[in-house]
Amino acid sequence: MTVLRLGQRYVRDDRTLTHLCLVSRALGAExxxxxxxxxxxxxxxxxxxxxxxxxxxxxxxxPSKKVMAEAKAEGRKVVHLTMYGLPLQExxxxxxxxxxxxxxxxxxxxPGYVYHSADYNIAVxxxxxxxxxxxxxxxxxxxxxxxxxxxxxxxxxxxxxSARGKRVVES
Amino acid sequence: MTVLRLGQRYVRDDRTLTHLCLVSRALGAExxxxxxxxxxxxxxxxxxxxxxxxxxxxxxxxPSKKVMAEAKAEGRKVVHLTMYGLPLQExxxxxxxxxxxxxxxxxxxxPGYVYHSADYNIAVxxxxxxxxxxxxxxxxxxxxxxxxxxxxxxxxxxxxxSARGKRVVES
Lengths: 171, 171
What we know:
Two copies of one chain form a homodimer.
Chain A: E1 2-5, H1 14-26, E2 31-34, H2 41-52, E3 57-60, H3 64-73, E4 77-87, H4 88-97, E5 101-105, H5 112-117, E6 120-123, H6 131-142, E7 157-159, E8 168-170
Helix pairs in contact in A: 1-6
């Protein structure tokens, strides 16, 4: 699974972008495409990989249209998250059958072609909320929750789950 | 279900706070407690209620310790989201049995008493990602996805889900 974040940078957006990257990584996507970034997001994510494992990629600067076209050419289903789309719960069985998926996450203004060239326009509720939450629930549902059990391989640090407090070990 | 966001304001945090409020509302919580807010978050959420329905509440300024103590006194289970906690998938069956829940979402620095007075410390993966995503997946799982079908009652506008494009009607 890969993720595309649409849209240009705008003021104070870098925290949201960082969340989108880290959620994509933690919930089992391989890579995220960002059209443009203001801050040091690729290096932040690189540090997270080094500390906590995995080889999640941040790919910056490729035009969205191209990313979507290439995804289709390699057999990915393109799933655009939008509050105007069809309810996730009605389409989830179909989405789970897809071999590979590109999830498209809206930015401040989504161009019309995205609605038309996506294979699915999917709503995680028809209420306004958060592209971070919508992405999380989509990734979680498409993988039937299996992503929560994923191992991140070789890492500097590893958390040992605890009922109380914090336990971090070097690994 | 109610949500408590721990911690004081800090620079550039208002977008994250807005996301937390709107996710709580869209995914079926009744209210969110914020210790302190910088911006006009309560009025933003009020406008969302007026436009899209429901009576979700933003409660500002009550000390976190008090909110947690009151929740326990009224029989709520207190569920603290932390990457150091026990895996969600191991505790979800137990959490679904709880009548009422207060979800506690960490801010920049979580005091030790939170880990100790919570009934559950729960991790949505042991990887660093986003409190918005963790909250979304917890709310979604505790309600077994039923929250996605929730109606928000009387509203000014309503979205008619579409395979392509945007359809909004006055209601």
